[in-house]
Design goal:
With about 375 residues, this protein is of the alpha+beta class.
């Protein structure tokens, strides 16, 4: 049994850790900004520029914003998020009003907008930002409009930047998930490839071994020399099967056939277990390695099925290089296919190979009239 990697699980863990690190980084940055805002407010009060009463709402805002945000963010509770934001809004507004629009209180409002953007839908964030200019309603009209628009611009800028960072984070997470799906599909495709190789190579070799042993047993008493020759061929096929198993289990990337395709097919016909004729039409030309591999596997599977099921006395292998593509046929004079021509796993694997290369695989048959397996590929 082949142990299979599970990239999706480990990748999900990595993505989760990345998101966790991102969230911790955001919380740390917001906590630092909140503390800096309170320190600024403290300096203003200590210098006699602001009323000390402003420290109370400022201190409460700092405690709630630094200790409460992480807990609220981790809980996907809609009412809790709105209640937290409303409480922070009241404390921030109080600090701003009592301190007479100090720099520290303004920074607290920036923290408010950023946290609201991280917790609430865009519509609710817009409401929070639009409420900010109302803090200057007690000023003279011109000054109030100027200061209100400035505060609105600061809040809008904070919300837009935060939303952009959130979208970038979500895009990175989506990209990571897409990459995991690609990796999973690659693993699945590799599993199917190994499964096809095991079926096509090992299945064919064992079928030939079985036929050779049956033939040897049939002539053992009358022709020991002939039986010995058949057993020698069976041993050769068994050794080839063992090499195929090692190749498939190791999932090696080397391609078959290692020799020109016509020569590989000729060797295949000589070990087929029944009289098989190879006909090559057109001028042989180099093909893509995966195309040659697929054509070789089609011939292998076709001859395997002939030996197993067709009750045939002869088989023909045709390799046609006539443009615009290349065609391989396996024909026999057996009983034909009774019932569906969809075939089993072997033909399914061949169809997958042909489809991946832009070609097609067909199986034509009539009861008592033999069968023709045909693979056509571009090139």
């Amino acid at each position: 049994m082949i142990d299979e990697p599970k990239p999706a699980r480990s990748g999900s863990l990595l993505t989760g850790r990345d998101n966790y690190r991102d969230s911790r980084g955001v919380r740390s940055a917001l906590a630092a900004l909140t503390v800096a805002a309170f320190v600024t407010l403290l300096v203003d009060v200590g210098g006699g520029h602001r009323d000390g009463v402003a420290l109370l709402p400022g201190f409460l805002f700092t405690v709630v914003a630094t200790l409460g945000f992480g807990r609220v963010e981790r809980r996907d509770h809609r009412f809790l998020r709105y209640a937290y934001t409303a409480g922070l809004l009241v404390l921030g507004f109080a600090a701003f009003i009592v301190s007479h629009a100090s720099v520290g209180a303004t920074l607290m409002l920036v923290v408010l907008v950023v946290q609201a953007t991280l917790l609430l839908p865009l519509g609710a964030v817009a409401v929070v930002v639009l409420l900010l200019p109302l803090l200057h309603t007690g000023m003279a009209f011109v000054e109030g409009v100027r200061e209100g628009l400035g505060l609105l611009a600061v809040g809008a800028f904070a919300a837009v930047v935060t939303k952009s960072l959130m979208r970038e984070r979500d895009a990175r997470a989506a990209l990571a998930q897409a990459q995991l799906k690609v990796e999973a599909l690659a693993v699945l495709e590799e599993r199917n490839r190994v499964a096809r190789d095991i079926h096509d190579g090992l299945g064919h070799a064992l079928t030939v071994v079985q036929m050779q042993i049956k033939a040897a047993r049939a002539v053992l008493a009358a022709a020991p020399e002939r039986a010995d020759d058949l057993l020698d061929k069976a041993q050769h096929q068994a050794e080839e099967a063992l090499r195929e198993v090692r190749r498939s289990v190791g999932a090696l990337r080397e391609q078959r056939p290692p020799v020109p395709l016509p020569e590989a097919l000729r060797a295949l016909t000589e070990a087929a277990g029944l009289p098989t004729v190879l006909d090559v039409h057109g001028d042989p030309r180099p093909l893509r390695p995966d195309a040659e591999e697929s054509l070789f596997r089609a011939a292998q599977e076709g001859l395997t099925n002939v030996g197993r099921h067709a009750h045939a006395t002869r088989a023909w292998l045709v390799l046609d290089y006539s443009p615009p593509g290349v065609r391989l046929e396996v024909r026999d004079d057996g009983a034909g296919v009774i019932g569906s021509t969809d075939g089993g796993f072997g033909l399914l694997g061949l169809r997958e190979r042909a489809t991946q290369l832009g070609g097609r695989l067909t199986l034509d048959s009539a009861p008592g009239d033999g069968a023709t397996l045909r693979m056509e590929l571009p090139g």
